[in-house]
Design a protein that fits this description.
With 145 residues, the protein is an alpha/beta fold. The protein contains five helices and seven strands; from the N terminus they run E-H-E-E-E-H-E-H-E-H-H-E. It has one domain (9-141): HUPs (Rossmann fold). Strand 1 (9-12), helix 1 and strand 2 form a beta-alpha-beta unit. The longest helix has 17 residues, at 17-33. The chain is globular.
């Protein structure tokens, strides 16, 4: 399914419905390009907590939680004609996506357009930051519709 001459498509997700819409578009693009799709959730720090439930003790990490989110989205996107891999990346979302795209040799990053309208755009958006800093193509999906 995947082409050896081109890198994957990367999509950033956070578990929201709008991120899922962007991920669906990314999957369709990856299938059309005959490359793999890397579904990525960013996390800020490598913190680990110990949770005790009865006599059982569990270690929960931020990276593990981020990977779980990416894995859940990847499962929802499954199609026979595209390889889909979940991943967690450390850092601010825009920086983590750009760095991962560079290290993976990605040909495209797909993000939704959340926080690109209204007052939220003053604070900045992941899409805007990725578009300004990525070394590959960036596709911004209209998730408002």
């Amino acid at each position: 399914m995947t082409s050896q001459t081109t890198g994957p498509v990367i999509v950033g997700v956070d578990g929201s419905d709008t991120a899922l819409r962007a991920a669906e578009r990314a999957r369709d693009l990856a299938a059309a390009l005959q490359v793999s799709l890397l579904v990525v959730t960013a996390h800020s720090e490598e913190r680990t907590q110990t949770v005790v439930v009865g006599s059982d003790e569990y270690r929960v990490s931020e990276s593990g939680t981020a990977h779980d989110v990416a894995e859940q989205v990847a499962r929802r996107l499954r199609r026979d004609d595209v390889e889909i891999r979940p991943s967690a990346a450390r850092g601010r979302p825009s920086e983590a996506l750009a760095a991962l795209a560079e290290s993976e040799g990605a040909q495209m990053i797909v993000v939704g357009n959340q926080r690109m309208r209204g007052m939220a755009r003053v604070l900045g958006s992941v899409a805007s930051s990725v578009a300004h800093n990525a070394q590959c193509d960036v596709h911004i999906v209209n998730t408002y519709t």
